[in-house]
Amino acid sequence: METLMLVDSPEFERIMECVFGIQSHETRTYFRLFELQGSTVSELATDLERDRSNVNRSLSTLSEKGLVERERRLLDGGGYVYQYYAVPVPDAQERMHEAVDEWAETVHERIDEFGP
């Protein structure tokens, strides 16, 4: 958060990375998935030109942060595949506001605790 506070006009992506504690490749995965809703790991890996295992880890992290959801789709020939969906940007923004508000409340409490 400290680094972000030193920037006059931080980009939305940098704010997102800071608030959620994610890396730039994860932010890139979120925004690409937002454009390609319902993609599989393989489809995203091809589109992002990244290894499937790396994309899978990014999706797991984004899912833990509440930014990505997945659904299981049954295949006609048997088996299944997971399709991933990025939560709408307004939902991500709301989660960011909540996280920043929690952080600010904690900081205010610490400030109030300080004294002789």
Automatic annotation (TrEMBL):
Alphabetized InterPro entries for the sequence: ArsR-like_HTH, TrmB-like, Tscrpt_reg_TrmB_N, WH-like_DNA-bd_sf, WH_DNA-bd_sf
Ranges in coiled-coil conformation: none
Start and end residues of each Transcription regulator TrmB N-terminal domain: 17-88
Protein name: Putative DNA binding protein
Organism: Halobiforma nitratireducens JCM 10879
Lineage: Archaea, Methanobacteriati, Methanobacteriota, Stenosarchaea group, Halobacteria
